[in-house]
Amino acid sequence: MIRSNLRPVAISFAIVLAAPISAFALESYVLEDVRLETPANKTSILLKRVEFVDTNLTRAEAQQLFSLDAERGVQTALVAKAQAKRVFVPEIVIEPKGERTGLITLRGYEVNDLDRGRFAKVSLTSIDGAATDKAGAGTIKSGPIILEQGDFGRIINAVKDGDFTNGVAQLGKFSWTGFELVVPDPKAPPGGQMKFTLASLVGSNTYDGDLPVTMKAEAKNFTFEPAKNSEVGQNLTKFGYDKLDMGMTISGSYDVAKKAYTLTDYSLTGVNAGVLTLSGLFGNIDRNALLGDRMTRLSGLMQGDVSEFTIRFVNQGLFDKALAYYAASVNRPPADIKGEWSVAATGMLPMLLGGDPSALKLAEAITTFLRDPKSLTVTLKGKNGPVRFMEAAQIRDPATFMQKVNVTATANQ
Hints:
Elements: H1 6-12, E1 27-37, E2 43-55, H2 59-65, H3 72-81, E3 83-96, E4 101-115, E5 118-124, E6 126-133, E7 136-142, E8 145-151, H4 153-161, E9 170-184, E10 193-208, E11 211-225, H5 231-239, E12 244-255, E13 260-270, E14 274-283, H6 288-291, H7 294-302, E15 305-315, H8 318-330, H9 334-347, H10 349-352, H11 357-371, E16 375-382, E17 387-388, H12 389-393, H13 398-404, E18 405-411
Antiparallel strand pairs: 1-2, 2-3, 3-4, 4-5, 4-6, 5-8, 6-7, 7-9, 8-9, 9-10, 10-11, 11-12, 12-13, 13-14, 14-15, 15-16, 15-17, 16-18
């Protein structure tokens, strides 16, 4: 099984947080055969060559960045001040020891135009490796990983203060392609493996000063394939799938003047399953909710409100498979189950929702969907204006919810 020791890996990548260029005392040099040994010698990390171009760090300071013996506070201070035109590591070799054997190789690690936590670009060409321990064998592969126009300065300050969660990073663009991870399946007999893959993950953000104002991201073909003879694999087969193949898109924008956030699209897709899409309009989102420390962000968000929220599901096989799976589990025909669900929606749902008129429309839409499951859309709007998050959190029963929220629903449109 592939495992990681976060501290040495973080140290070997610490220069990511470094870095354009001081006008004085810039140096260029190469560190050869930089080796890190984790505590108890469980993992060895070898950086065969580390190239620094136009950096304000001395050779001795650069060596401290990659030392397990250096104090963490010293390393953080070096990262906070570091500048460099370029840092390049052609190859990083991670070798597990003890009960684990194998090699994991990271190639083409490069950082460009770094300045005290900001960077123009960080990239990694590939990852390739395998490891084996008493749990079994595993492999990892990855294509290029690229980060652009980043600023991790707030994270560095948060680390200095001792609370990593207080840091907020900025990132202009990012992409990751061709990932595959194979590990032992703990729910399968010995030798069984499960596989995770990702075809691509790409995204971009824009900022007004420090404030993020637009965000887009898309993930394609994130798959999970358990061992066929595992408990999960057998249940997945009964449900009608040999693997899960999913995707995601998200886009949103923040209006600084109006303190409003629009979630344009948050969609989860599944091959031979369907698409679940969320969208919404949120107000009174103060800048501190996006930039402050952890508690300030939470406090700022709790002052926000929602004026509209929409949930839409487009069926592409998931409902039919779920119905068949449940019907088989109770040994009854799927048509009988659908009929019972329709009766429950029509007769019980309006009562559960306090007899509100919109509950009848919701029940009608659900019944239409059950008869011919193509799509179902539900939109929520505050009856007396936006509903504050704190107010929504205090709702304890459906009747109270319906007093505050107007519900509209449509099916197969």
